[in-house]
Specification:
Layout: E1 24-27, E2 33-34, E3 46-53, E4 60-65, E5 73-79, E6 82-86, E7 91-95, E8 107-113, E9 122-125, E10 128-129, E11 132-137, E12 150-151, E13 163-172, H1 178-187
Antiparallel strand pairs: 1-13, 2-12, 3-8, 3-13, 4-5, 4-12, 5-6, 6-7, 7-11, 8-9, 9-10
């Protein structure tokens, strides 16, 4: 699991509103966090959890990726203002436009990538499952990752860069339950709140 902020080890679960303490401000030009060996296998289903806010109303690609915009990349306002999980030329999923992409407020995002069936991939915003807009599900077009996970861009150098703030970024090697996602939203801490498979 990868985390950009402090870990919470308390056993109680008080309900808070998210407070930005240690977020990273990405400039949309060349800011990025490059991980070393994190989430490198395109054939493994993965959940990404993070708090984010942005005021960029135009296309805002590169929230995260693995070497290219379509190598496990997640993007805001990609086409027709829809968020996109892009894993191949015919292996992607769009969700309906949401103001959470660009309203300048903090929102909790959970992206589940099903590596074997894109129609099972899910997006939650503030613990609410989002409505799907379009899906392409040809598994043979899935692109293999060429790089480890990059946050704030879809590749380690060049590529598309995200404009906005990200905090509490975490990666899990399984699908999270609705209860786990709701708990993370209500407590605002991702790490140490969910038992990870590894």
């Amino acid at each position: 699991m990868l985390s950009l902020s402090k870990k919470l080890s308390l056993t109680t679960q008080p309900i808070y509103r998210f407070v930005n303490e240690h977020s990273v401000d990405f400039d949309g030009v060349d800011d990025r966090i490059v991980t070393d060996g994190a989430d490198t296998v395109s054939t493994q289903s993965t959940t990404y959890s993070f708090w984010c806010k942005s005021s960029e109303t135009g296309v805002n690609k590169g929230v995260f990726g693995h070497g290219d915009q379509k190598f496990g990349g997640f993007h805001f306002n990609y086409s027709l203002n829809r968020p996109l999980l892009y894993a191949g030329s015919s292996f992607f999923r769009y969700w309906e436009d949401t103001s959470a992409q660009d309203d300048g407020e903090w929102h909790h995002w959970v992206v589940y990538y099903d590596a074997n069936d894109m129609s099972n991939s899910k997006l939650y915003i503030d613990s609410v499952l989002q409505t799907v807009s379009a899906t392409a599900n040809t598994l043979s077009t899935r692109d293999n990752y060429t790089e480890s996970l990059t946050i704030g861009s879809d590749r380690q150098a060049g590529g598309n860069s995200f404009q906005g703030r990200i905090d509490e970024f975490a990666v899990y090697d399984r699908e999270l339950t609705q209860a786990e996602i709701t708990r993370m939203f209500n407590t605002y801490f991702s790490p140490n709140r969910v038992a990870n498979g590894n």
